[in-house]
Amino acid sequence: MRSFALPRRLWIPARWASLTISLAISFFAVPLTDAQTTAKKVLVGVLGITPSVPANHEVFKQGLAQLGYTEGQQVAIVEKHADSEPARLAAVAADLVRSKPDVIFARGPAAVAAAVRATAAIPIVAVDLESDPVALGYAKTLARPGGHVTGVFLDLPELSAKHLQLFREIVPSLSRVALVGDSVGNAAQYRATERAAKTFKLQVQTFEGRTPTELDAALEAARRNGVGGVVIFSSPTVYGNVARIATLAREKRLPTVALFSEFAEAGGLLSYGPNLREAFRRCGVYVGKILSGAKPSELPIERPEKFELVINARTAKTLGLTIPDSLLRRADQIIQ
Predict the structure, then answer these.
(1) What does pTM read for this prediction?
(2) In 3-state terms, what secondary structure has residue 163?
(3) Which of 102, 115, 164, 203 has its CA 20 to 30 A from that of 192?
(4) Which of the four pLDDT bands, split at 50, 70 and 90, describes residue 39?
(5) If you average pLDDT over every residue of the chain, what do you get?
(6) CATH entry, 39-155+276-298, from 3.40.50.1400, 3.30.300.20, 3.40.50.2300, 3.20.20.70
(7) Where residue 32 falls among pLDDT bands split at 50, 70, 90?
(8) Nearest to 194, CA basis, from 180, 207, 208, 179
(9) Gap between the Cα atoms of 7 and 251, Å rounded
(10) Three-state DSSP class for 144?
């Protein structure tokens, strides 16, 4: 029977054994750096003329999270705003750019313009319900922007004509309306509404409403002039003050219509326009795509496709107005 000899014990010099053990211990003992334990957070800058509306900011973050970017984990978010003062926006945008965000989310036409002027290198995702991105040079086409700006744009000034039509259904005797907004940012809406007013044989008066103070004064001027209704044009300042505007209009017994459903929910007579929260969610998705490597030049500019009619029946009753059944049947939401 064949026998096998056990191998002799491998001999290692003492000094090499000591070195081997020391290296092993040091390898496991070295603390991991931050970069080794967690991936570096990317930075998203948010720019607006007013502070973010909490509900919209939340759905924006939900959109980001769909792409795997959760605030405080994979991404940090820094917000800069001009506190409702348009003159401050350029400086605020420059300050945001100096923080070197990976992407800028710009809310509203003034913020988008300020961001574009402040940087040509940082990708910009915009939510802008007033501007034509191609006409302003932000994009070559909606399908393929070709630059560093993309996002959600509405650019449908004709919606203001729809607002006048809705007014006429509720107040058939309407003869005079007030238009309240930003004469620069809402220029296209003003022109479209004035054209529609001629069709409906309505007299139009315009009032500036770029700041909360101007909005208050505009509503008071509309009341003194005895208008039968007020069209509130869309802007970040209006959106950030919907409850205040709706309350003032109701106190002054002014029928009002605006783009945002939140306006009617806050006590305005009615609203007709896109779902703004869905636009914010889509912008969050776009920011997430860019952080994941997509190019803004290749992300198509989106436009809202669904529009909602919201009627506040309680406000109508307060104002002594009767909403026709035909209009109630078309409403997406009726606030009792």
Answers:
(1) 0.82
(2) helix
(3) 115
(4) low
(5) 88
(6) 3.40.50.2300
(7) very low
(8) 179
(9) 100
(10) coil
